[in-house]
Amino acid sequence: MYIDYEVADKIAAITLNRPEAANAQNGALLDELDAAWTKAAEDPDVAVIVLRAEGKHFSAGHDLNDRWPAPAEITLEWIYGAETRRYLEYSLRWRNVPKPSIAAVQGRCIAGGLLLCWPCDLIVAAEDASFSDPVVMMGIGGVEYHGHTWELGARKAKEILFTGRPVTAAEAEQVGMVNKVVPRDQLDAETRALAEHIATMPSFGLRQAKRAVNQTLDVQGFYAAIQSVFDIHQSGHGNALSVSGYPILMKLDEMKAKIQ
Known about the structure:
The protein is α/β, with parallel strands linked by helices.
C-alpha cells in the first residue's frame, strides 16, 4: 500500500506514503491514488479533499524503474497508451472532481509530481518547497499534463523548462501557482485549517464555483491545450526511440541524484 486514506470532519486526507523513495510514482501508487480520489468524490460525507505526502519530499516524479520495459521492448504505442491512462487521464479526472481539493507540498516536487498537485484547486506550500520540470535534459519538452503556461505564465514556464531550475515556494506564490506559503512545521495545520473553513460552505455552491472557474479555463483553451501538448510530449519519446539505447533511460541515475 502506497496511499493512506482517512476521513474526519468532512475532510478526506489522501496521503502519499512512499517516503523511502521520495514518493516517486510507480504504477501501483498511481492506481491507488486514483482509487482514493474516486472514493472521496463519491462519499457524501466528504466536502473537501486534501492531498499530502509523508517524508521530506512531496514527490520525486515518475519512478522510471517501474514503468519502463527493457529498452529493446519499448514502442511508442506502448508509451502512448501507458501515459495516456496513468498521467493524462488520471490528472484530468482529479482536476474535475466536483469537490474542492487542496495540495500540501513540502520539499521537492519534480516533473511527475506536478501532475499530482496541479490538478488540485488550491496549493499550500512549505517554505522549503520547490517545483521543477527538468525533463528537457531528457529530450522531452515537459511532463505529460502540461499545465505550465496556465500555472506559471508563459515566460516563467519557458524559464523553468529551458533551464531545469526549481521554482521556489515564494516564486510560485508570486505568480499565483501557490495560494499560501507557510513554515514547514505548520504545513499540515495550515492546510487543515483552510480545508475546515471551506468545508463549512454550502456544498452545491462550492461545486458550482469550481465548475465555473474550470469551465472558464476550458473556454480559454486549457483542455484542448493539455490534450494537444500531450502529443508533443510523445514526440520526445519518438525521438528517443530513434537513438540506440533509448537515452531517456540513461538519464535516470542523473535525475535520481537530484533527490537527497
